[in-house]
């Protein structure tokens, strides 16, 4: 894809459009899942929007639904628009995405089980002690030094003035 830069101004514009579309889609997927698929099973973290979470998430999804086609529109209109001046973002981004989605449905969902977890995910536990770094067995990694706002070496950590 980097070779597209050598294609000229239109190719560079398409490359930047691909980046913007990919970022919008990547950031919106978890928002969409939280708002439209998870429902009341969502467990909010330490910072969340409360009751405003679903309306703001729906507005964010609607914004992205509007912006993705806009970012794929050509910058030239009228009689000057031809195949050489077209914004090919929809093809360069959409083609591989369609291929990957078809591959997922046909094959990958059967054998791909996600990333292998090789550490304990204590951050996902329900007790507050787990969030501060205390292991479930009772030993603390650095929780006692974190509670007073100082790290292991005495520096201020985790607190903003």
Structure characteristics:
disordered C terminus; extended; 161 residues; mainly alpha; 50% helix
Characterization of the model:
The protein is an all-alpha fold and 161 residues long. It has five helices and no strands. It has helices at 9-38, 53-71, 89-111, 128-131, 143-147. Helix 1 (9-38) runs antiparallel to helix 2 (53-71) and helix 1 (9-38) crosses helix 3.
Portion of residues within helices:
40-55%
Q: How much of the sequence is in beta strands?
A: under 5%
User: For the CA atoms, what is the radius of gyration?
Assistant: 23 Å
The SS-based structural class is mainly alpha
Secondary-structure element order, as H and E?
A: HHHHH
Oligomer: single chain
Q: Please report the distance between the alpha carbons of the first and last residues.
A: 44 Å
Main beta-sheet strand count, sense and barrel state? none
Mean pLDDT, nearest integer?
75
What would you say about this model in short?
This protein has 161 residues and is mostly helical. It has five helices and no strands. The longest helix is centred in the first third of the chain and has 30 residues, at 9-38.
